Amino acid sequence: MEDLLIQALNGLASASSLFLVASGLTVIFGVSRIVNFAHGSLYMLGAYVGWSLVTQLPEGLAGTSVGFWGSILLAALIVGAIGMVIEVLLLRRIYEAPELFQLLATFGVVLVVQDVALLIWGPQDLLGPRAPLLRGSTEMLGVRFPRYELFLIIVGPVVLGLLWLLFHRTRWGTLVRAATQDREMVSALGVDQRRLFTSVFFLGAMLAGLGGTLQLPRESVNLQMDLAIITEAFVVVVVGGLGSLPGAFLAALLIGELHAFGILILPRITLVLVFLVMAIVLVARPHGLLGRASAPSRGAAAAPDPPIGPTPRPLIVAGAIALALLIAAPLLLRDYEISVLTELLIFVLFAASLHFIMGPGGMASFGHAAYFGAGAYGAALLAKHLGAPMLLGLAAAPALAGLLGIAFGWFCVRLSGVYSAMLTLAFAQIAWSVAFQWVEVTGGDNGILGVWPDGWARDKSVFFYLTLVLCIGASLMLRRAVRAPFGYALRAGRDNALRAEAIGIDGFRIRWLAFTVAAVAAGIAGGLFAYSKGSVFPSTLGIPRSVDALLMVLLGGVQTLSGPIVGALAFAGLQEQLMRATELWRLIMGSVIIALVLFFPQGLAGAVQKAWGK
Amino acid sequence: MVGFDRRTLLAGGTALAMPRIVHAQGDVIRIGEVNSYTSQPAFLAPYRNGWILAIEQVNAGGGVNGRRLETIFRDDAGRPEDAVRHAGELINSERVALLAGGFLSNVGLALGDFANQNKKLFVASEPLTDALVWARGNRYTFRLRPSTYMQAAMLVEEAAKLPARRWATVAPNYEYGQSAVRWFKELLTRAKPDVTFVGEQFPALGRIDAGATVQALASTTPDAIFNVTFGADLTNFVRQGNTRGLFERRRIVSMLTGEPEYLLPLGDEAPENWIVTGYPWEDLNTPGHTAFRDAYRARFNEAPRLGSVVAFDTVSAIAAMLRKTGADTETEKMVDAMRGLTFPTAFGTGDVTFRPIDHQSTLGAYVGRTALRNGRGTMVDWRYADGAAYLPADDVVRTLRPQS
């Protein structure tokens, strides 16, 4: 019994830590609608800056309470200022861009911060000092419990209380709440949105920094902190309801406690627990625990996408030339270049499949790798367990991906916006953990090896042509589907769900079908990927792969049909080149992404289209 | 080409042929090295230093048969698919003679399979998974470091001497952690049938909820704990465990914790009296190691880590293999030379062999206890556990590895 009570306290301490990070994220999202991927980086910077301050205190302050807590607060303020700089220099310029585009910018920041932190603080994990006065432990229920954990348990609710006061007892807070509900209206009433957004970003970043620097006495400071925390913070925000502080607190409690007790019963559940919780909560409550359906946004971001006309003649010519070059490529290039082209083609189809539901469908997906990975595993499992020939494997790939799409899509397309996107992420992570933990069948994280093409397709050129036919064929079919009556119905539902329903379009079925079609197309890409690499690992359906697809689509431009093609070529091509050229490829890649975001807020293909239109 | 030129020389070639001969003999041998440099910088920065040092020493000594060694490094960012792409590029465009590297097990396996498919030699340096040389072993893949099984076997030998009966385990939730626990349980139960395993924890790699994990372990009241966590997880686990008294009156047996990579970041909070595998870099004073340590310090102005030794030994092995083939870089000849190859290790403990039976090297590890000295962790009472003594019998190995 005492054990269980102590375990409950452990859950509370983790919940507090989680809440601090999530609170900043939810405040920022609530007002600016920015999915701030760099929030984890701010958290990591908080820890590193705090470490530097605490370990370099002047003589008289070192080891004292004043020195320690002063450093903690100063670190949080510095990170807040860094957040403000990011907002002013970067995000402020792209608020008008299509939804989720800012995610691309913040991802660029993540890459830059990773290399900058490595350059400043070095590769080795750093261990911060313990907090003065809170070093040891207190005897409770016959068990020693760390005093610092008790302190953390108190910090969470205190911060929640302070934030509540700030939002309910100050004019600034009232404005923030109003902007969370309807930011166009607030702006129409004469409130300076820019200052409001900047100050909100400062607050959010400061909370992330505080969350990070408060981990100093309990955890090591390392370069993996950013990505380790960011997914969990998002889960907390979404489970709680976007923009809701009490919701985030409740969600952090739920996840902290479930985790603390879950590992007593099922120690191996650590990988998937938070995503299971999120899936269940979102299926039962589509807007999270305490979230509300947001007011329909009337800003530029919600302006309907430009209508899709017939493919302009120059584009057809350009496409034909590109195709001719691709067909001629194996005659001119060496094996390695051919295999890189093969990989690029696969990513083109993968990005096009995501674009199909994101652009015309209006449903973002943070978990599209699930279907890519399902395709890869479909092919690999058949090859491994049944010794199936390659063509059978390639046929099984879209089949398995499609089945998964039917199953997951049925839940996901009922939700909207970020909730829907996060539900796709939850399912993708559940699929990932199956691939990761079902070692007997999938080989776990050691993967499935020896998935090489059959003899006739072993030649790089032959496999390239096979990929060319399948990927370009499937991409063109997706393009065709957007222009078919089905595509019109899909776009109608995206632009105005109510009107579309009123003229007799069954929005749910159309979206469900679109989701499945996208899954099938991603599955084809996944199957080809498996055979081109010769092995399949759980990482094919991991979060980074989903993020890659998202970045490709956003980089190319969501609103054009050619966007995913351009985006995939730019993103994967750039990464391939940079990784060979320099150790600091993340820094350069992040900077390039940031620059592209600033110069082409409609995406690369969108910019070309706009320039053409003029 | 080399053969042709030499024959020309023997036939009394003209002076005109001389520069070509010099050129051919001075021709570099290129090694393609693929590793997760950006995703695992803490381990791979010292690794790369060790590699560079060894290459410089080989070249300073005139290379191999007059041919210099050159390395082309590639970063796979921890992704097997990128590693495979780099491998293709290194072989196709850079014309490397052989591949080496790999830190993560899945990257190592992907590269091993790629090498098998393309019939190129792959010398895996770091990956620990048993599958690399056993379940998924192949003709073209060789592995230097003592595997998960070997490390577990070394620790079981010590664990079996303890009076502890009730054991709990904690390991990161992926293949390395799971197979370490599986082997430890199996081998310890075989050595000491009266032990019971009363609890196990599998925190997600890099995301341990240390407080809850420590408490969950404590509630099973074990006599001893087998730990496999490392890096940031280990640090957080040790902090919570120290504050909560988890390690008091309990023996802890811990994999890899004696390696400076993991011990040094713990600073003065490094645990004492844990039984660990590792590398006593300060106190190991064999002539070979002293020379290595001095050279490393002179070149990089810091102490070597275990990764430095692994990289240094990998290059030593490759150089020894090339000497054996007479600098011939034809893959089948190199593979034949690798089988049964002996080469010196930077530990200075004599020669190490790549076993023909499974392509695992007999490089060992140091087993000892942790202690605090001058405000940081170190290893005491250590001994060298020769890898050859901690591998299963040959007939068992044959059942573990596909026989062609």
Automatic annotation (TrEMBL), chain A:
It comes from the Bacteria. GO terms for biological process: amino acid transport. The keyword Mitochondrion does not apply. Keywords: Amino-acid transport, Cell membrane, Membrane, Transmembrane, Transmembrane helix, Transport. The chain crosses the membrane at residues 12-30, 37-54, 66-91, 103-122, 150-167, 196-216, 228-254, 261-284, 315-333, 340-358, 390-411, 418-439, 462-482, 512-531, 551-572, 584-604. It is a multi-pass membrane protein. Belongs to the binding-protein-dependent transport system permease family. LivHM subfamily. This is ABC transporter permease. The lineage of its organism: Bacteria, Pseudomonadati, Pseudomonadota, Alphaproteobacteria, Acetobacterales.
UniProtKB/TrEMBL annotation, chain B:
Residues 29-369 form the Leucine-binding protein domain. Signal peptide: none annotated. It holds the Pfam family Peripla_BP_6. Coiled coil: none annotated. Keywords: Amino-acid transport, Signal, Transport. The keyword Transport applies. InterPro entries: BCAA_transport, Leu-bd, Leu_Ile_Val-bd, Peripla_BP_I. It comes from the Bacteria. GO terms for biological process: amino acid transport. Belongs to the leucine-binding protein family. This is ABC transporter substrate-binding protein. It comes from Plastoroseomonas arctica. The lineage of its organism: Bacteria, Pseudomonadati, Pseudomonadota, Alphaproteobacteria, Acetobacterales.
